[in-house]
Amino acid sequence: MTTSKLGKYLSGLGLLGLVIFLCVIPFYSTDYIVSVLLDILTWIGLTQSWIILSGFTGYISLGHSAFFGIGAYVMAILWLKLPYPLIILISAMSSMTLAFAIGFPVLRVRGPYFVILTLGLSEFAKYIFINYEVNVKGTVGRILLGVPNIRTLYFSLLIIAIVTILCAYLIKRSRFGYGLFSIKEDEDAAESLGIDTSIYKWLALGISAFFPGAIGATMALRRTYIDPYSVFDPIVSFQIIVMAFFGGIGKLHGPVLGACILTLISEFFWARYPHYYLIILGVILVFIVKIMPSGILGIFDLFGKAGKVVKFVRRK
Amino acid sequence: MDLGSILQIVFTGLIMGSIYALVAVGLNLIYGTMRLLNIAHGEIIMIGAYVAYWLFTAYGVSPFFSLILSSFVTIVIGLIICKIIFLPMIRSGKSEESIQSNALLLFFAISIILTNVVILIWTADIRGYSYLTGVVQILKVPVMLNRLNAFLVALVICVIAYFFLQKTMLGKAIRALIQERTAAKLVGINSDRLYLVSFMMAFGIAGLTGALLSMIYELSPFMGFPYTITAFVVIILGGLGNVLGSLIAGFIFGFVETVGISVTSPGLQSIISYGVFIGVILYRPKGIFGKGL
């Protein structure tokens, strides 16, 4: 009993230490380290926001790149017209508004149909933006000038990532979260027990779309050039899913771990061999789904179980 | 609009429709028998197209002969994927829902792997070759020979697939599996063997479709996904496991797209087909013939 309490305090302290470390480190390290950390924070935020919808309710979304892209485009349109934190907020809000607007009809679709529908919707959004660029504006993409330096962006993403994790954590612990889990287990049963499943799913989609909007907006500033092909890239959704499954979608720290490890691997491959990296990600996804359905956290669980067995045997 | 341009639209619609029907037959077989949604279907078509392109440009192999060679390559790929990944999964006895969502992720991973392997081998540049570029006049409307050829081949394959499913014992067993899996197993149909057969057939047809498309269109590693979406619309419209339905729905979708493009502009093709896809899945998920799924 006391040991588990102590464990909680320790892990709480550890988390606090990690946050302080992440706040301090940009002042003592090179731009390269900061950019790697910034990438990690990006993917942590994206996977956590994806978990709020897909991990909790079981409605697997392959369309989160659309929310990312919307955020990036709102930033590109409003940049230098409004203060920067305000644009991030507006980007996130517009992405959430879009999710709320399409939420009810889209979430009526279930199972594999929902999955392929989200993929189709994000491609639809991509082509609408491509057409808008080519036919209305007569351009291909947008260049953002006078962007904030990398440390400012880093701190924005740090805040976004922390808020996302906090949000996912609070939802998971709340009555709302339990409702979402019940949808994953058995939607009809949940409905018959008086959970308004359509409202629950709708809210989860909206919240889940909010953060990719904010992250997309920040990443538009980081990239300084965006076009519909790069910001609505289905590879973004693909990476979110592989990272989340790699870490293990059963728990919140699984995706965080997955995002950290795979971003570091990508750091090694991405610059020189991007296609090898994507092939590796594909193979990892196949292995995880086939062999380790609970991700790398599953391995730790196995160790934990083995430890318990050893203790049990010793006591005998 | 004069008669000539109306006929032009009709011909284009027929040609597109026959190709869409062919694309959909493959997806229909796998989804019908195994209840697995193959979102890598378009990438298999892409592989078939690249094989035909490579054989033609490097060795001068006639694309007609490549129809067989491409489908052979994709059948082998299908055999490997099915044996290693999907058959064990179906045998594992997990719930149908978890198998479905896992299969979707696996196919997604396979599509990314195939796309990037093709990029590694042939780079992401757009490629193509000219073949049968002559023009014939049908009812005073000029039609390119390679398109006419694609239409005829697609039609022939669809008809063969239809008669195979309707008349042969193997085809009847596959249809039984599509309609009622448990009952089919009860009357002694070897479901595992049929899963493998339909998987390989679907991949073979996809490879052949790819070789056929390579004669008409330019190739890129990203050409696959729009075909997956189209095939999905067509099998939803036409009804699950219903090859005749796929054929009709393929033509309908071909016409809708052709008319849509000719009324607006060719640049809007993707938006129109994705729009139809979203509309169909949201408002007509049981197809135009009402039953199915």
Q: Rg of chain B from C-alpha positions? A: 19 Å
Q: Could you tell me the number of beta strands of chain B?
A: 2
Q: What pattern of helices and strands is seen along the backbone of chain A?
A: HHHHHEHHHHEHHHHH
Radius of gyration of chain A over all CA atoms, rounded: 20 Å
How far from one another are the termini of chain A?
Answer: 22 Å
Q: Determine the mean pLDDT of chain B.
A: 85
Oligomer: heterodimer
Order of the strands making up the biggest sheet of chain B: 1-2
**Largest interface: chains, residues each:** A-B, 42 and 35 residues
What does the overall shape of chain A look like? globular
* Content-based structural category of chain B: mainly alpha
Mean pLDDT of chain A: 87
Biggest sheet statistics of chain B: 2 strands, antiparallel
Q: Number of helix segments of chain A?
A: 14
Number of helices of chain B: 11
Physical arrangement of strands within the biggest beta sheet of chain A? 1-2
Spatial gap, N to C terminus of chain B: 40 Å
- Helical percentage of chain B: over 70%
Q: Give, in order, the helices and strands of chain B.
A: HHHHEEHHHHHHH
- Residue windows where pLDDT falls under 50 for at least 5 positions of chain B: none
Explain how this protein is built.
The complex is a heterodimer of chains A (316) and B (293). By secondary structure, chain A is an all-alpha fold. In chain A, helix 2 (31-57) packs across helix 12 (253-269), helix 6 (150-173) crosses helix 7 (175-185) and helix 6 (150-173) runs antiparallel to helix 9. In chain A, 82% of the residues lie in helices and 1% in strands. Chain A has a domain at 32-233. Chain A has a two-stranded antiparallel sheet with strand order 1-2. Chain A is built from 14 helices and two strands. The longest helix of chain A has 27 residues, at 31-57. Chain B is an all-alpha fold and 293 residues long. Helices cover 76% and strands 3% of the residues of chain B. Chain B contains eleven helices and two strands. The relative contact order of chain B is 0.20. Chains A and B meet through helix 4, helix 5, helix 11 and helix 13 of A and helix 4, helix 9 and helix 11 of B.
